[in-house]
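Supplementary Note 2. Why include the ligand at all?

Several targets in our set were suspected to adopt different conformations when bound, so apo predictions alone were not considered sufficient. For every target with a known small-molecule partner we therefore ran a joint prediction. The input for adenosine-5'-diphosphate is given below.
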Amino acid sequence: MLHIENLSHVYPNGTRALDSVSLQVPPGMFGLLGPNGAGKSSLMRSIATLQTPTSGTIRFGDIDVLADPEALRRTLGYLPQDFGVYPRVSAYEMLDHIAVLKGYAASGERRTVVEALLNQVNLWPVRHKALAGFSGGMRQRFGIAQALIGQPRLVIVDEPTAGLDPEESNRFLNLLAEIAESTVVILSTHIVQDVANLCPRTAMLVGGKIVRVGAPLDLIGEL
Ligand code: ADP
Ligand code: ADP
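The joint prediction is reproduced in token form.
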């Protein structure tokens, strides 16, 4: 369970991106819906410990996230909105490399982890292809595989369907739903359809404030 209380963030230029946000996120898939500029990325980056909010608290299980960001990072998978890839490296090589960084020292164990992830995200057939040649959908599925190394208990995905065609979007969202069977998955998006079928609980963020939490179809009037 993720508990956020009275989280506010004011950027140095005076922009108040988050205004006393309080939110409880249970296990499973949770949607964060809001128009551009609502504060979604600011909230995702705060939870992911990439920026320190001006005030408030974030707890995940027994981790006090702002006091001990390292503890959260050990159990976090984060797929940012625009993540870069090394173009000439293959999917297999990159995942193997990240597995090393995450502490999988033994090559046999790494092989097991990397092969399982490549199968899970359906990239096994293209595992030796350079990332530069990946389509948008393949890239996002690679991104989620990358985020899942180390078995995170909290997975944050920021605007993942931008630029994907409807079929790839659905494929990606269904993959998230599978992942959410065993973790907390927060999906941030400005697209109602992204959360409509998969996120029974969705929070609506507007102007840095949570205006409602409920089933996506009940929130549409707020957009
Ligand atoms: P969203 O992800 O919902 O589009 P953001 O969190 O990116 O919203 O932005 C919320 C508000 O904060 C916007 O008004 C945006 O322009 C502003 N903002 C975001 N990042 C910064 C920054 N680094 N400095 C100043 N203002 C920012
Ligand atoms: P998003 O849709 O994720 O909010 P943005 O286009 O708002 O993306 O922001 C892209 C990058 O620019 C982010 O790193 C954000 O922090 C920064 N940014 C956004 N708005 C501002 C702003 N008004 N001043 C400075 N940096 C900003």
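The first helix runs from residue 40 to 47. Strands lie at 2-10, 16-25, 28-33, 55-60, 63-64, 76-79, 154-158, 184-189, 201-206, 209-214. Comparable summaries for the other entries are listed in the accompanying table.
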